Amino acid sequence: DKEKYKLFRNGPKTAKNSVGIFVREPLAQEVLDIKRINSRLMWIKLRIEKQTMIIFSAYAPQTGESEEMKNDFWAAFSDIISTIPKSETILIRGDLNGHVG
């Protein structure tokens, strides 16, 4: 029996920068909300048993991109995280391109 997955994605199909989150069926039926911030950042809100979890997919600008692009990405990321209630569990997945802190 093959497992089935649903892809939630954001970004133009022809662009090199986009993000997505695969969710295994039937858990995909428990997605409560989707927020597509830009082609590098999105999240889904998922109910797992009695807990609500926010799962982020993030793709930070890589070396060689402009400082403005990097600053815009981190400002958007910070702004959206600050809106999530402390009672929510947050999981961040993606490629942060060596940016930590």
Automatic annotation (TrEMBL):
Signal sequence annotation: none
SUPFAM superfamilies given in the database record: DNase I-like
Origin superkingdom: Eukaryota
Gene3D superfamilies membership: Endonuclease/exonuclease/phosphatase (3.60.10.10)
Protein name listed in UniProt: Endonuclease/exonuclease/phosphatase domain-containing protein
Native source species: Helobdella robusta (Californian leech)
